[in-house]
MYND-type domain-containing protein
Amino acid sequence: MSEKTPKPLTEAQQKILDAIEKNDVLQLKSLLSEKINVNFVDGNLMSPLQHAAYKGNKEIVQLLLDQGADVNFCEHQHNYTALHFAGLSGNREVVLALLLSGAKTQETNTVGRTAAQMAAFVGHHNCVAVINNYIPKSEVDYYTRIHGLEMQQYLMPFLSDSLHKFIMEVNIHPVKVVLNLQNLAGLADHLPDIKKVVEMMCEKEMKRGPETNETMAFKFHYLAYTIDELLKFKQKKEKADDKKIDVVELFIRNLLKPGKDGHLESMDAFIKECIREFPYRESTLFRQMVTSLTGLDPPSALSIINAAINGQKGFIDNISVCSTCGEEKPAKKCSKCKAVQYCDRNCQRLHWHWHKKACQRLSQGVETTEAPVKPDAAELSSEIQNLLIS
Ligand SMILES: [Zn+2]
Ligand SMILES: [Zn+2]
């Protein structure tokens, strides 16, 4: 705990704090263009970065970090770090910006709580998840170098940024994992390498001894498993020479296939198999997941791994999620039935094959007795053009 009495602020320092208080990015930019040290504290022993983190303003936080704000600088009387304040703000972008600048996650305040624990305490589970899924970039960069007797590195350096983002993604819905593999630069063309590195990261994590983070190890296993299944599926389809539909889209479609009661049976089976294949059966986490799976009236496998990785109960229960990729609070709705939500047109398109019939039923309020329509890709896309998302 600091016993320091704060020094009076200079005029420039006060102006900086005022700009942060007013969320005035432009004003702050002009103030920072001079070479000014932003590692100072005000009368409450709070630094500009701590104030900005508490306000949850990502742009201002980044400006201060770029100006040389020390992310772990802390004289606060209750030892709240910038990361504690960010967790309290509820803005996960701010949390991530601080982590990427080296914020320590295990620092505790004077009541013995870490930033993740404080964020959980005020119900900001999105911030907890970002902290719990954080991996220093150096852990990925390790594989871009040649070690010992290796002939070459396991990971091409240009893939490092994408892979880092991929493994830190908080939304672990399998469709989101596949979409990330498609969307993060370079990954889709190097799936075998990516899989190998993620598998090695899993093994390395389990060998850390008392430092082992089982949750992270399982997450690596899950990501590698998903890549492996995608690779196997691609191989199978390429042999069958079926070029009518994109293989990745077909893989996603299979995951989203509804069983009886709309329950996603094939996705459930996919995740259960992944849990069964986790090689570290003596781990506490493995036993916990198996116990949940085999209990009376078990929750979906997705909510079990989400509870394991993100410490959250339930996935689809309370919050609205995208029907395709599980992203929370999606911005759009199916304009016809207004009963399902999506991130964007792509997510809607990927789900349309299964939603089509339900959509009709939901929007008319009657059961349809029509035979299932066999859609082809072209028909599908022209149809969906008329079904604008709103
Ligand atoms: Zn989505
Ligand atoms: Zn609909």
Notes: The chain has three domains: 11-132, 136-315, 332-385. The radius of gyration is 24 Å.
